[in-house]
């Protein structure tokens, strides 16, 4: 996937360079000259076609990566997970786990419970609302 990202960056940089060249040529061309206007249109069309071609080639690589990722995910879901569940069930059914009661397994956590905080006042009353001052 990193190669695809590098390829996309390369295509973007090439596109920017080609676009700058087209802009330079169009700026130097005379707007009143119909021949140079046709040349500019041709350059813009070539630029667009070239960019679309490069982008579609990269799009194919991205689509191939997505397809391979889907195949790997399906393989894992349909084969990997059920196999792992069977293995874990077999481990649970062994003599080490079968005869143990979960009630016998207990551990005190010793987490202290903080005292309830009644606010910032010492008399236990809630603080009064703040007065809003206006700049009139």
From TrEMBL:
Name assigned to this protein: Proteasome activator pa28 alpha subunit
Keyword set, alphabetical order: Proteasome
Any one GO cellular component localisation term in the record: proteasome activator complex
Keyword Glycoprotein: no
InterPro entries linked: PA28_N_sf (IPR036996), Proteasome_activ_PA28_N (IPR003185), Proteasome_activ_sf (IPR036252)
Coiled-coil positions: none
Ranges where the Proteasome activator PA28 N-terminal domain occurs: 60-115
Cited Pfam families: PA28_N
